[in-house]
Amino acid sequence: MNPNQAEALSQRGLDQLAADSPGEAVQSFRESIAADSNHFEAHHGLIRALRDAGRLEQSIAAALALTALTPNDPLAHTALSISLQCAGHVPEAEAAAARARILEWKAELQSSPGGDTSQ
Fold first, then answer.
1. How far apart are CA 46 and CA 4, in angstroms?
2. 3-state SS class at 1
């Protein structure tokens, strides 16, 4: 695991996305993830790059992998919802969006004074 290398590769991927080169960005984000599988920004970048490259089913698969790695992260479920929506899987996209909202609400409740979501 090399977090510094992962960060540099992820930044290169973001630059490639900004330059409208999603295919190249996919490779950079995959290399970043290979350097540090817990570099979640690279996972998000990969999902976006695959989606921008029109590789929607691969984008969905990458988003599902991220939700497995970070099941309580609302952004992961939002990314899944967006990819599903783009691929025309509307009911699944709505379910993923609902899951993201529930996770956000739980986080808000837990951060409020006296918040307890264990019930």
1. 18
2. coil
What predicted TM-score, i.e. pTM, was given to this entire model? 0.88
In CATH, what is the architecture of 3-111?
Alpha Horseshoe (1.25)
Locate the domains of the chain by residue range. 3-111
Asked whether the beta carbons of 6 and 37 are under 8 A apart, the reply is no
Give the orientation angle of helix 22-35 with respect to helix 40-52, to 10 degrees: 160
pLDDT in tens, 55-102: 999 999 999 999 999 999 999 999 999 999 999 999 999 999 999 999
Q: CA distances (Å), 74 to each of 2, 62, 87, 113, in order? A: 26, 15, 20, 21
